[in-house]
Amino acid sequence: MVGTIKQQLYVTGIPKGLTMTEWRATLYDSAERERFAPFTIDPSVNQGYVGEVKMYGAHAFPSNSLGARLEILWKLTGTPTGRLGDADSKVTTDPANDTGSDPGDQAPPTVDPNDPDVWATKLDQLGAADPRAEEPARSGRLIIETTEWGLIQRPDYVAVVYQVGSATPLRVVSKVAATIIDQPDDALFVIGVNSNTQEIGINGVQDKAVSDTLVSYLIQGIFYVHEKAFGWVFGKFW
Description:
It is a single chain. With 238 residues, the protein is mostly beta strands. The chain has one helix at 208-219; strands at residues 5-13, 18-24, 26-28, 34-36, 39-41, 49-55, 65-66, 70-78, 89-92, 139-146, 148-149, 157-164, 170-175, 187-194, 199-205, 222-225, 232-236. Helix content is 5%, strand content 40%. The strands form five sheets. A six-stranded antiparallel beta sheet has the order 5-2-8-10-12-13, with no helix packed on it. It starts with a strand and ends with a strand.
């Protein structure tokens, strides 16, 4: 079996007054114990750690095949209060087309992560995260997947798709090192609510300092478009 890939997930910001629950997934916690849904995510506890997704090739000899694909469904309950739950403007910087940091021992990529054909998930074909929910706009999804695995090589990239409601999602993309020791960058997510437009926004990053910056702007009522973030996805909240 080609080496395992372990993707760490965090939610580092949630509007005050709201509770986020992961309610359909099985992950691993920091002690390698299985963590079964439903469970509540709290950014003030263990830095908002959601869990670890372990990925392997689809077969014992995963030549030219996509690896495992895990979908995590989440929902928000409660009523947003305070400035973190009342962001109503945007500040824009020049966005960077950033596919993650470059590991020290990095094999040359053989695929383009911006090519939709290299991913199993097609962003423009996803519907609502959970259309059966009583309030679909308050639900969302994370999908963790990889590009093709080689016979003796790990995939070039791993991605976490993030979506709210039925909005078109985006990806947090990380390069995968050739060695089995190195792992992808952590994926961190920040959530804000605009009470005036009744929208919720979620953004993905790979750096805790960047997520802290996004949270600090949300407290001021601003959805900040950071050059090292992967972009805001907005959906109607209520």
